[in-house]
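Consortium newsletter contribution from the modelling node. Members have asked for a concrete example of what our holo predictions look like. Here is one, prepared for the zinc ion complex that several groups have been discussing at recent meetings.
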Amino acid sequence: MRGSLICLIAAALAGLTSIVQGAYVPADPWDDGRSGLGAVTEGIVGPAHTEEAAVIYVSNDDWFTLPPLNYIPPPYHRDALEGVRICLDPGHAGGVIREDGRISEAIMNLEVALMLREFLQASGAEVVMTRETGEDTPNEGNLEWRARLADRENCDFFISIHQNATRRESANYISVWYHSRPDHPCAANDLARWVTVELHRLLRHHEPQHAGLYSSWLMYPPRGLADGYRHDTTEGLPSGFGVLRSLRVPGILIEGAFQSHPEGAQQLRDREYLRRMAWGLYTGILNYVWAGIPSIALHEDQTEVVEGPRPEIHLSLDDGMHERWARNAPPRIHFETLRVYIDDERATLRYRPQTAEIFATPGEDLAPGEHTVRLRVLNVWGNWSWPTEIPFTVGGT
Ligand SMILES: [Zn+2]
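And here is the predicted structure:
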């Protein structure tokens, strides 16, 4: 493994390989995204100047030394989760501590969730739990009940905590799952990404090359379909993990480590390791929220009742981001992703970045009555807006 890594780095130093195919085009701040690939730019690749330096650079023995943690939140976490309501779901229930000292997954999951709740509450979040004890509850096996608790309790998002196991003893990596077709970016995917990065950094698994975020469709593709990625033909068919499938809010399921891995199993019996896992979840969640969730609201000049049949809805756009000094700048969004839907149909837009105003017109006449408007956009921290709907009424009934 190490030999091949050195070869790869040496080859990279010699300019022979590249992660992405194609010639590099220097960034042009005024590029409208239509210029495509242009001139070839030569550049220096990698931090090392010699092959010996590269050898030191790729020496990975230190990977298994867990980075020290003091469990003190950085100052930017203060109040970062004020007003955020999170549903935690410690997977399974009715866990037991066996005589040989082995504990069941349900207990590990509960330990992590209870410590995570403590950290989240310290940053101002409200936390709802699907269970708080190791005892069986009437709904313990009801995944839909667990998922719907997040709606009933008006939570913003949902986190299900599990530990993995498999027949292959050497398997040990982190996996974070979201429910969506694998090629469809969504809010749950964003949350999964921030959490994966933090858990990966802190837990140092034995197979870091496998660590990652996955659509639960990859594990359980839609039934009866050879190509599990075709969203359009699968409506109504179950796919992915039951608990994620039943969610209406963004949600993820994490598999922290493998109980079937000899050293992983030992680590999972260590409360300190579970606390580390809780901390990784905590900082991942915080970084996700801190990066902001873009949203729209009816503009203050916009009345809730509008004249039909083809109204122009006046909206205010918020990039959701936290920095204060640039608050008066245009919203920091990826403009090419900006879309607004009226009743699930894409609307025609006029956008005024200087004042963060959007004017959205439906493609077809709207009947008198209730309608909804919804945003879809990516901010520059890489977070998608949530699929929430804002109601308005077309008058004239
Ligand atoms: Zn589980």
